[in-house]
Amino acid sequence: MILEGRQLSIGYPDRVVGAGLNVKVGKGEVLALLGPNGGGKTTLLKTLLGLLAPKAGEVRLDGAALSSRSVRERARLIACVPQTHVATFAFSVETVVLMGRTAHGDLFSRPTSKDRMVAAAMLDRLGIAQLAQRPYTMISGGERQLVLLARALAQEPQFIVLDEPTANLDFGNQGKVMREIRGLASSGLGVLFTTHDPNHALRAADRAYLLRGGERLAEGPVSEILTREWLEALYGAPVQMIVAKAGTAFIPG
Questions:
Q1: How far is it, in rounded angstroms, from Cα 78 to Cα 163?
Q2: Of 222, 228, 196, 187, the residue nearest 207 (C-alpha)
Q3: Are residues 58 and 164 in the same domain?
Q4: Residue 67 covered by a domain
Q5: How many structural domains are present in the chain?
Q6: Is the C-alpha dihedral spanning 58, 64, 67, 72 positive or negative?
Q7: Residue 142 placed within a domain
Q8: In what order do the strands lie in the sheet with 64-65?
Q9: Residues 35-80: pLDDT tens digits?
């Protein structure tokens, strides 16, 4: 199964953000989408999720047009973790995670015992089971990000799309999320995530896609694409590459 965009033009009613974009991710692999602010990363994710209609081209899932699938079908196949989420109602953390189960039942039906088991398993998987009865509005931004990831996992999707998944996380939880991303791929899911940090892509991704000004600069295995030369072209700034026994890392020049 493959999630792909073919010759996509992306944007909003009043402007085009990017054009001629081909991108795909298969089950069992991780694709990292890198680029500077305003480069089109989030717009591309929204288009691949079906939240924005492409201005040209087509998004396909398992060989069929994404637009031909119902919203419920999409929710069973693709889950999304947004970069930011404004907490409005003081639902418990468990309730927020259970919302991911609506893809498998009726929006107004009560959660089943299986739903609660899945939600509890995902909270435990991310090490936040102790937050289950806490109000979602009363936990930290980093904890909320982990709750949103647990909600996405509770959908039991085939693909998971994450927009800046470590943006609000401390150093330890960044590592937890990167390990979880690799674990998702190992369990057969396709994963697409955006990041500003090439070191996260080095650690967790199989392939990298470099997007600047709505145009693809390069795409391929991280070992070939994440080089000092490509990153300097991507960000328009000097980059230093550090090579040590533990591996390679990049820092601003």
A1: 14
A2: 222
A3: yes
A4: no
A5: 2
A6: negative
A7: yes
A8: 15-26, 2-12, 56-61, 64-65
A9: 998 889 999 999 999 999 999 999 999 989 999 998 888 988 999 9
Distance, in Å, from the CA atom of 141 to the CA atom of 139, rounded to the nearest integer, reads 7
pLDDT of residue 250: 87
Q: If you count them, how many residues does the chain have?
A: 253
- Spell out a b/e string for 65-99, using b for 16 or more CB atoms within 10 Å of the CB, else e: ebeebeeeebbbbbbbbbbebeeeeeeebbbbbbe
Encode pLDDT of 180-217 as tens digits.
Answer: 899 999 999 999 999 989 999 999 999 999 999 999 99
Q: How far apart are CA 41 and CA 203, in angstroms?
A: 20
Domain that holds residue 200: 2-62+158-252
pTM: 0.91
Helix (H, G, I), strand (E, B) or coil at 169: coil
